[in-house]
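Hi there, hope your week has been kind to you so far. Would you mind checking whether the tokens look sensible for this chain? I owe you a coffee for this, so here goes:
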Amino acid sequence: MKIPAIKKLVENHSLQELMAAEEAIVDEQQPAIEVGGDDEGEQLTHVLAAVWILNEMEDNGTDFKSALRMYTQKVRVSIS
């Protein structure tokens, strides 16, 4: 997971574009938007993170940095 790739997705794409990219990656197709990552798994991780962060920002009025922090905390908890 690369924070700069997630930030770029959040700043440059709508929720609809990100969800379409998620579907394309899951279907093993090339997404219409540029998604950074070394492989499809990392690309999917970046898109899912960006979707979660955008939803958090829109639903709760959270700023990007706080939403990113919340997401990374969720990931750390799920790993440990």
User: Anything to note?
Assistant: Residues 3-79 form one domain.
